[in-house]
Amino acid sequence: MTTIYFASNRDVLHETSTTSHLFGERFNQLGPQCFRVGEANVDYAGDDPKIDGNWTVGAGKLYPENLQDRNNKPATYGSARLFEGLRKLLKGGDCDVIAYIPGFANTFENSLQRAAALQELYNSEKQRVIVVLFSWPSNGEVAPAWNYFSDREDAEASGLAMGRALLRLVEFLTEMRAVDRETVVQARRIGQVPKPEDLRQCTQRLHLLAHSMGNWAFRHALRKFSDLNGGHIPRVIDCAFLMAADEDNDALQERLKLRRLEELANRTFVYHAANDIALTISDTTKGLPDRLGSDGPKNLDLVSERVFAIDCRKVSETALLDGRHQYYRLRDEVIEDIRLTLDDQPQEDRSGRIVVRPGRSWRLQPR
């Protein structure tokens, strides 16, 4: 059994559920800016974690929100419980966190399955990971075509909720560091050095993974977060993985799009495939040409030197209905490449073969 922690600005159906039918397909009843957090169990029964059908969503629950305290005490949020729970998990072991934003046509339950699969697939002996899901209200339907535009509008509107979630994380980290500074000061006053276990902070890393339309949602999350934080974007993410991004190919060049991601993340990895059928359809039928997930950044020389482009055109093929768009979770070559980056030792693959990554871009080859 796998526990997946999540946040969502979907409409709440149940506070607890034995089948995790916690959310519907529309926005939170208080507005798209409001989100709830919680956890759900996902069971794995099968030979291949890449297959959605091998994952069964089980019991789930939302963390309570105390928004109006009768005794005038500060409001308490479910996000505080989530962050504190993750802090304890990370403090107790060598494990990173990946914040996952899924793309178009995903239900909440399906997104939980994908998150659990990614947690299984991206784990390695050198680096364990915990995947935390943000599920925006995609309705899970591909056809008819208006579902795409409906989801695109919902993804954009969800940017405020994501930005608020990111702000709460930064506030949590800031408060935690302040407490640790005071602990250090107090220890020094009595001639002692605080032990690592006396400090609240851990040394583990936070990463971001956005797939397809999730990148469009994240563009708006980044802008809203900047607005909420007085224009300041602190660097709290190590690796940002932009997978098959349904975003403009100049997004990392433009300040009003994704350029300020260079302030938030240490490194950005753009996985793209020119033969991505889903993005080709986005171009030819929906009037959205020049996708970042098709040919990568428009000009690497005009973006941060910490942006890397990985060409997946030779490893994009999976099942026909996947549209060469799901390689980030279905192709071993891509999974291995992500593991190497997360390991922070990208020198050899699982078989011991030396991997040379030339410069800021490379092409993955089929095995």
TrEMBL record:
Statement: the UniProt record of this protein carries the keyword Hydrolase: yes
Keywords: Hydrolase
GO terms of molecular function: hydrolase activity
Signal peptide: none
Pfam families: DUF900 (PF05990)
Keyword Transport: no
Name the record gives this protein: Alpha/beta hydrolase
Species this chain originates from: Jiella endophytica
Source species taxonomy: Bacteria, Pseudomonadati, Pseudomonadota, Alphaproteobacteria, Hyphomicrobiales
